[in-house]
Every structure is written in C-alpha cells, then in structure tokens.
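User: Could you walk me through two proteins back to back? I'd like the raw sequence and the structure tokens for each, with a short line separating them so I can tell where one ends and the next begins.

Assistant: Of course. Protein one, sequence then structure:
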Amino acid sequence: MNVSDWLKFSTIDRLRSSRSEFIQLAILLLVLGFSGRAADGPAKDNAPKLIAPAVSIGTGLLLEPALTLPEFPREKFEAAMATVGAEKIHRPWTNAVVPLPPHPRAEVKGLTHDEAKAYMMEAKRRFDAGEAVPLSDVGLISTQEDVIRKPMLNHIAAFSNEVARVYLLVQKTYSDNGWSYFSIVQDLTVSPPIDYFAEIRKTGPHFEATSCYKCHASGPLAIHPAREDLVLDAPLAAAIGQFIADQPRSVLFVPEDSPKPPTGEPLTLKFCARCHAEDGDRDRLFQVQSHPIRVLVDFGYMPPNRRLKPEEIAQLKAWLEKKP
C-alpha cells in the first residue's frame, strides 16, 4: 500500500480493561466525587486563553490606517464563511488538532516530497468531507495588507501524528468567487524540522516559497482575527493557536521554481533579535518581512510579553523606513 492509499484509512484502537482495573477506576471516581460537571471543569481550566482582540495601539508603524471593517457586520461574515459549505464549519469538536494515523514507514528520517504532498491532499480530503472542523476568521495580517485592504476569509484546520504537523488554509477575499486551498506540512523527523508550503491546485500541491516567505519564514503564523466578532468558535481558534505557538523552530523548504525573495537587511535590534536570531526561538527577520512586523507590533502582539517603549518604536520605525 502506498502512502496515498494508506492515508485514506484510519486506525481504531480498542482498549480493554480487566475487571480489577475497572473496579479500581470506579473506586477512584467515587473518591474524587466524579460527575459530568466535574469532568468539564479541568478541561475548561486548562483551556488556552482566548486570543486577545486586535486593537491598534497607535505606534505610527502602519503604512495605512488600521482597518476596522465597520461595513462588514457579523451576519455578513457568517454568510460569507458558509459559502465554503455550511456543513463543513462551526460544528462541535473533540480534538482541536485532528489525529492522523501512524506513518507507514517505520523510523522514517525525512519525508519524501510525495509523502508531504500526500499529507496535504489528506488534509484537503478530510476538510471537504467535513471530517475536520476548522476555525474560521477574518485574518488580521492579510486583511491589513496594503495591496489587499479588504476582508480576507480563512478556514484553518490542523492535523498531526508522530512524524508531521499538517495545516490546511482555505482562503479567499470577500469579493472573490471561489476558495483557494493552501497547506503546510512540517516534517518532524529531521532536525530542524522542514516546512513544506504549497498551493493545492487542480493538478495537486505545488510547493511555494517566494510568496510565503514574507510572512512564514518561521513556519505557520499565529492566528490573529481582524476583529473579535469575526471568528467562528473562539475556543477552537485559541486551541489551534496554542498548537502553533508550541511548534519547534523550523526551516522553509525552497523549491527551485519558487526561490526565496530578496531579504534586504536583517533586523538586529535587540528587542526583536532576542528571539529572532540565528540561535533564537524563531528565525531571523529581514526587511522583506516589514509588513507583518508593522502589523504585529502596532496591534501589540509583538513582542509577546510587553509593549515596546517609545524610543524602541522610534528605532524600529527608522529601520523599517530604510530603503532595501
């Protein structure tokens, strides 16, 4: 069985408990005062914090005024998202990250390109079949893009097994007619992990780097809805967002027909390079990443644990305004 055929099937593990184990479990539950309500408590207590609303803090870094989309009410948002297929979205879910069956090759060290593409197609198949409930939102960074400046609609689903993390992005602008499919596969069998980015076309996945590097040099980007009410299922968004935040540092796969764009100067300011460095938690930042830098800092998402001081914002603004 090849990997494409294998991915069409799921493995159901059946667990059996002995009589003594069942009795021990029953006693333990009685001691703990187990009830359905109590079972829900820890799950809620341990749930990731909801994503903070996107509000510009007025740094002056944005090239255009922040879009608040007052002409895009919740009702219009829900109707637009449902055009992907209302039966596929906004449904109850158990696992924020959909488990994939074990990889067919034991002790694999490096996915083949065909295997990476097979994972992408499996993610699309599951989404199209309604087997993966995605978070649905209007994306902050893509909506704020100075060449777009309109609501960018996203459906995002996450999948994983021992060898790979797989993401599916189903996306369109509000004015587009059809939805486009994109996928990321993180190969966890090598160190550092390799990120494969692709657009899923009618002919299958096509690896990309040129158009992805600007926002995804460090892998999948954190989820930031453009407005608090423009997201379906905020807990699911928070859970998938935490999964992304916990990802290992990785490197982008660059195919020959989609080279990395010119990067410009590196960002060496210490309040950014503390994490974004050769030996940092995330990859280095360059002038080519100026748009996401402007948006994430202006909306207070970066740095993640504090706000930049006025003098630091001035330093960053001077660097951003340097001609590449």
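----
Protein two, same layout:
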Amino acid sequence: MNLNLLGYFRSGTSYRVRIALNYKGQSYSQDPVNLLEARHHDEAYRAHQPQGLVPTLQADGEDLIQSPAILEWIEESWPTPPLLPSDPRERAHVRAFAAVIGCDIHPIQNLRIMKHIKATYGLDQDGALEWARHWIHSGFEALEKLAHLHGKEGDFIFGDAPTMAEVYLVPQMYNARRFGVPLDHFPHLVRADAAATAHPAFEQAHPSNQPDAPHED
C-alpha cells in the first residue's frame, strides 16, 4: 500500500501516526505542512482536510483524517504487532487512557488554541505557556491515577509492550517538556515514556528526526 503522511514535525497528532506506522513496520513518505507558515490554511491543503488540521494520511491516494480514526484504521489494517489488548475491558482501559490525552489535554494546548487565547484575551507568551502547563499537569494527574488503577506490571503502562497508551503519551510528554511542566509526580508516565522512546519505532518518529525539522549547521 502506498502511504503518504501530510503533517508537521512537531505536531503531536502527526507524531502519533508516525509512531504507529513505524511500530507496524509500514513504510511511508511525508509531505510536510508548515503550521508556522499557515500552510494548513491553504486551499490546496484544505482540499484534503476541510478543517485545515494535520495530519492527513493518504492511503493509495485516499485521504484519511483525524488521528484517532487514522490510528484505529492502522490497528485494524495491520493487527500485528498489536497496539490494543485482546481483552475488551483492557482495550477500554487503554482507549480511555489515550482519550484523556486526545480529547482533554492536547486539544486545548495546541498551536491554534494558544494563538487564539493570546490574540483574544491579551495573554503574552508566558501567560499562554501557563495555560498549557495547567491543563497538561491536570491531565497528567488523572493519567497517573489511571496507570496506578489499571496498569500492568512491566516497563509500559499496560505491560511489557507499548500500546496505544504510549502512542498518545510520548508526544504529550514531549510537549510537556517543551512547556516546562514538572514531571516529578508522575513516575508511571515517566517510566513508560522512557521505555517507549528507547524503542526504534518511537525514536524514528521523534520530531527531531523528521524531514521538516530545523537542523543546525
């Protein structure tokens, strides 16, 4: 299958999709969409994604949008190695963990929200960063409790192998560090993040390893 990812190197949602494709052993090309230059608002890009959001995954020329839907499609298309447990209740716990990030943390601290609150409410950069830190920290408190309640023994949240939990967690931990969120009170999250980022699939997906990442001479 011919796969082409339209995304941005530092986009958490694009990062998730790269991780999943790498973990499944699927090769793909990339067409970067520069968010800082507002290329996602171009008519040419909106022809693929009407919201003007990244990523878009083109599968044999067909546009797939919204990272949760893309990730489920990837899991269904290449079930091995799995990113979801076989037990329905355990799958629900993994999906709930991922949803805390995908629904409640990431959307309110991404670039378009940060730009809006700065422009509309007169926040400076420090104020916008404090907004992001507040919501990330609040969400991480819930994730740490979920990991304690439903997690399994092992290096990862739900056992000895990464799941969709780490696919969502690692990009959000990357953002947390960028925004200066203290992580001392989240040992489960830190441990799983360390284990995941050491995995080749996650390492290859890191923003610094993408074709549109700025490189110093």
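The chain has a mean pLDDT of 97.

Let me know if you want the two compared in more detail.
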